[in-house]
Amino acid sequence: MSIHEECGVFGVYSPKPADVAGICYYGLYSLQHRGQESCGIAVNKDGIFTSYKDLGLVGEVFSAKVLASFPRGRMAVGHTRYGTTGASNRSNCQPVEVNHQKGRMALAHNGNLSNAAELRSQLELSGAIFHTSSDTEIIAYIVTRELLSADSIEEAVSRAMNTLEGAYSLVLMTPEKLVCVRDPFGFRPLCYGITEDGIYIVASESCAIRAVGAGFIRDVEPGEILVFTKDGVTSRREHCGTREKRSCIFEYIYFARPDSVIDGVSVHEARLRAGKELAMLHPVDADIVVGVPDSGLDAAIGYSMASGIPYGMGLIKNKYIGRTFIAPDHRLDQVKIKLSAIEEVIRGRRIVLIDDSIVRGTTSGRLVSLIREAGAKEVHMRVSAPPFLYPCYYGTDVDSQDNLIACRHSVPEIAAMIGVDSLGYLPLEKLGSLSAGQGYCSACFDGNYPEKAASGACRNWFETPLSEKEA
Ligand code: SF4
After folding, report:
1. Are 450 and 167 in contact (CB under 8 A)?
2. Would the CB of 444 count as within 6 Å of ligand 1?
3. Kind of pairing, strands 288-291 and 350-355?
4. Does the pLDDT value for residue 87 go beyond 80?
5. How far, in whole angstroms, is CA 192 from its chain's centroid?
6. Which of 12, 288, 301, 357 sits most deeply, having the most CB atoms within 10 A of its CB?
7. 299 vs 276: CA distance, rounded Å
8. Residue 329 confidence (pLDDT)
9. What's the pLDDT score for residue 466?
10. What spacing in Å lies between the alpha carbon of 442 and ligand 1's midpoint?
11. With contact defined as beta carbons under 8 Å apart, do 42 and 49 qualify?
């Protein structure tokens, strides 16, 4: 697997001064799986912002000394980043902070604007100067521009939403308010909860809400703006229901943590269902079902439950290697450093190997070699997603068809290339069972881009090779 996640966002609103940076820190820890390149926290104490952000994991960036340097405040915004637009460098770390004529703002973003290039060039032609290459700064600019003539930050955000296209789950903070927003398609998840002390928590995933001891209230609806102030929470819904809901189906398959619940659907249960479907559609005589850690494990349990083939822990993941691990010696097989096979489980057995996807095929091929070297008699691979055929423009790094093995090869050819005895994918028509009947985006599998469908015409973005867009 070599797809990377997007980002994780987190927000805190406390009715009275509290250690909001500490709460944010624990929340970001729970969202580390969504981005490991950089992270940051901005705290608001009486309208004065204090922030710290850097490249690295949450535990590396926020030492005890750094955390102690934050004041107690009433609001905080946090971010973990895997950059999908913009280079991985310090200037692209979030939250993005903006000082403007009416005050200041800190903004954290998960997703990717599909009209970022167009908006950026319009802004630059009107005199804007960008300090980063990330699309989050574009959002900050547009919200700030609208704020100059709007009565409130929520009005400015609502107006900005008429301009922004693509995926954005945002948490933003002004001197008086915490605001969170989910784009009208609802591509990326966003939800909120409350602690026993009345502190509101906003997070990309419900696992982060529970991690800080808060109770889950609900998901932010696609197109909804929530505003947290000293008077409580208010909802603006003028963009709700303006588009058909199209949340990212790959959140259930791979991105999200299995203990999260997105739009009322348990990620763990969605993966179990995928595994069960695979067992019914692609049965095989085998001795043991092995899941590829971490995101293949739940589907492997589902396959085992539906097929009656015992589940076995045949692969162990090195927990101390982050997903952005860089090998100092490229001759070494990185798969072997990240994963190891348990020979006692594998040797002499016919294995059903469950993974969440095959992208380029190189990682899958190495994984299959690992299982064979451990003595597997047969390896039958089952994938809990359909073949990847199209790029994603909504916040993942599947950016080019050139990198997708299924674009150039049939299923039997892929099976031969990665060295398995048989290969079966989850078919497109079964994806709906993962989101329990709710509208979902499956564009990377079927090319059915939500915005293309919404506009009724092919927009240039979807027809232009990525290399040209980035030029
Ligand atoms: S294109 Fe694929 S990865 Fe991207 S938002 Fe849609 S389903 Fe998710």
Report:
1. no
2. yes
3. parallel
4. no
5. 17
6. 12
7. 7
8. 56
9. 38
10. 6
11. yes
Peptide bond into 356 cis (omega under 30): no
* Ligand 1 near 359 CB (within 6 A): no
Atom of ligand 1 nearest to the CA of 391: 1
Q: Which residue has tokens 């015992």?
A: 310
More confidently predicted of 451 and 313:
313
Enter the pTM of the model.
0.91
SS3 75: strand
CA dihedral 418, 419, 422, 428 (to 10 degrees): 0
**Residue 185 near ligand 1, beta carbon < 6 Å:** no
Tokens of 414: 């892929």
Residue 303: C-alpha distances to residues 55, 273, 288, 379, 438 (Å): 39, 8, 10, 15, 23
Cα–Cα distances in angstroms (integers) from residue 362 to residues 230, 456, 457, in the given order: 53, 37, 36
| Residue 113, CA atoms < 13 Å, CB-side half-sphere | 24
Asked if residue 465 has pLDDT above 90, the reply is no
Give the residue, 454 or 74, on which the prediction is more confident.
74
Tokens at 238, concatenated: 């003028």
Report the chain's mean pLDDT, rounded to a whole number: 90
Place of tokens 């490991």: 36
Using the structure block, give the residue that is written with the tokens 């946090």.
78
Q: Is 240 a catalytic residue?
A: no
Determine contact, residues 172/190, Cβ cutoff 8 Å.
Answer: no
β pairing state of 422-425 and 378-383: parallel
Q: Please give the backbone phi and psi of residue 262, each rounded to the nearest 5 degrees, phi first.
A: -115, 125
Walk across the sheet containing 73-81 and list its strands: 48-55, 38-45, 73-81, 7-18, 200-203, 191-194, 215-219
- Asked whether 396 lines ligand 1 (CB < 6 A), one says yes
- Please indicate whether residue 16 or residue 320 has the higher confidence score (pLDDT): 16
Question: Do 29 and 59 contact (CB within 8 A), yes or no?
Answer: yes
User: In which residue are the tokens 């709710």 written?
Assistant: 438
262 token code pair = 């997105």
Between the alpha carbon of residue 414 and those of residues 250, 253, 300, 339, 436, the distances in Å are 21, 21, 21, 22, 30
Place of tokens 């939250």: 95
Helix (H, G, I), strand (E, B) or coil at 199: coil
Task: Report percent pLDDT > 90 for the chain.
Answer: 79
pLDDT in tens, 319-375: 777 655 555 555 567 787 889 999 999 999 999 999 999 988 999 999 999 999 999
Closest among 323, 330, 334 to 365, alpha carbons compared: 334
What average pLDDT score do residues 205-228 get? 98
Using the atom order of ligand 1, give the atom closest to the CA of residue 393. 4
Phi and psi for 441 in degrees, rounded to 5? -95, 130
